[in-house]
Amino acid sequence: MDILLIPGFYLDGSAWDDVVPALVAAGHEVQAVTLPGMTPGADNSQIHLEDQVDYVVGMIDGVPVERKVVLVGHSAGGGIAYNAAGRRPERIARVVYVDSGPMGEGHAINPELDPDVVDTELPPWEEWGAEDLVDLTDDLRADFRERAIPQPANTVREGHHHPGDASARRAIPGTVIACEYPAEQLKALMGQDHPYVRELATLDDYEIVDLPTGHWPMFTKPAELAAAILAAVDRD
Predict the structure, then answer these.
(1) N or C, where is the chain less crowded by C-beta within 10 Å?
(2) CA 29/CA 88 separation, integer angstroms
(3) Helix axes 76-87, 49-61, angle to 10 degrees
(4) CATH homologous superfamily, domain 2-233
């Protein structure tokens, strides 16, 4: 299987360095994605959410047509994975959402972000919730902050748009790897039609598996995350 690993905000493809070896050892072709705008010195004023979605679609197109693709998206990367998958549904075996989920039409991370802001820095740890920071040691925090890349602001405030067939997009199997909030809590939110999980509830085939840790399991529990991804891939 071909696996594309899409990081969340403030991260490039190197975020997956401790996860990739186990996936490769299991016999998979793996690419860790660095999205447009996520390189030091990039002109982020010219980077839009659609650029990042198009980039992932291009990577899907670069995989030989006889092979299926699994998209793995962490945090906001889950929305990008879902969007890109919907544009090539016949190519996608599964989307794996790491502490994340699919984002519906028009859904943005922060549509209220000041339009004059060009990019955003990784916020101070004091601004994160305690659930985000579980298992993120002082050393891991220092490493994360050193590697963090400013996030193009357009990708924060712009909403997702899904031009393809909704039924084809929602027919793609999904796996949510639940870290901050356990499966039981996510299912309760789905019962309340909470916006965070509203699009997830529309999928024809999905599962939620627990991996208790903070918001960045590729740093805090990479071996366990790799195992969860492999388990999801093996279902296809």
Answers:
(1) C
(2) 19
(3) 50
(4) Alpha/Beta hydrolase fold, catalytic domain (3.40.50.1820)
Residue 214 to residue 99: CA distance in whole angstroms: 9
**Mean pLDDT confidence for 176-199:** 94
CA-CA distance, 101 to 174, in Å (whole number)?
9
- What type of residue sits at position 43? D
CA distance 200 to 176: 9
Domain borders along the chain are: 2-233
Question: What percent of the chain has a predicted confidence (pLDDT) above 90?
Answer: 95
CA–chain centroid gap for 14, Å, is 14
For residue 105, the one-letter residue type is E
Whose structure tokens read 């993120």? 136
Segment (H or E) for 184: helix 183-191
